[in-house]
Amino acid sequence: MIHIKFRMKKVLSLLVGIIFSCTNAIAAEKINIEKKLIGIVGAVSGTVKTTTRELKTGDKIYLNETILAGTKSGTQILLLDQSTFTIGSDSEVIMDTFIYDPDTNDGKIVASVKQGSLKVISGLISNKDPDSLTVEVPEGTLGSRGTEFQTIVSKKQTDTLLIGPGKNNTLGLRPGEVLVGNNFGKTLLNNPYSVSTMKKGKAPGQAKKITKNQLKKFKKKMKALKVAKLEGVSKEEKKQIRKEIKKELKAVGLNKEEIKVLIKENIKIDKEKKAEKKKAIAEKKKAKAEKKKGKKKKAVKKKSSGKKKKAVKKKKVAKKKKAVKKKKAVKKKKAVKKKKAVKKKKAVKKKKIVKKQVAKNKKKAKKKRKKNK
Question: CATH classification of 11-254 is 2.60.120.1440, yes or no?
Answer without folding.
Answer: yes
